[in-house]
Amino acid sequence: MLDANKARDKLEGILNKKEYQVYNNHSKGFLEILWEKAKAWLTEQLEKLIPSIDSASQLSGPILVAIIVVVIICLSFVAFILIRNSKRNRMLRDQKPLKSMQEMNWSFQNHLQEGIRQEELENYTSATRHLFLALLLYFHDKRWLEARMWKTNWDYYEELLKVNKQNADRFYKLASFFDEVTYGEQIVQKDAFLSFKSNVMSWFNEDEQPGERSLKTL
Fold first, then answer.
1. What is the pLDDT of residues 16-33, one digit of tens each?
2. How far apart are CA 164 and CA 172, in angstroms?
3. How deeply is 23 buried, as exposed, middle or buried, from its count of CB atoms within 10 A (0-12, 13-18, 19+)?
4. Does the predicted model carry a pTM greater than 0.70?
5. Helices 30-49 and 56-93, packing angle to 10 deg
6. Burial class (CB in 10 A: 0-12, 13-18, 19+), 159
């Protein structure tokens, strides 16, 4: 029995030596070392927050697992949202508002009148499209931009930036709404459409001359 105790003490002494501990640490994987450090840190934090807990080291394992699971779920959700929005924004930026020569050849007044007609029919998606095209061709007439079938709203935004940044920012908000309605399959509610219409009409009526008929009455 004495020899057995001596052998055990000798083995413990060897295991506690610095050389063995260094070898043991090297033999551990990176994730295992990281896990142990995380557990030690969490244990220390728990002991600071709740000094009365005697078994903080025992609790840190399950709590750490729960925290990691929650973090992974949150990060996965955030990554999903970011990837989806990135793809969606890329898709929206590639869309071209003018789809046919007929739309291109109509005057902005024609599109404006058609937009009002579609509004009266409560077809707010179509009304949104015609009002936006009316605005786009209005800008073309004012030579703020050059309307072309191959251009996207991002192209028009960059052209407007060269003329007036404030106007470009106003246009960008309207273009974003138009893209969501036209390509993002967003269902247009009446209140949202009326807000969009009000912003579009403000462009036309800002440049009216005294004595001209208000475009609001079209």
1. 555 545 545 555 566 677
2. 12
3. exposed
4. no
5. 110
6. middle
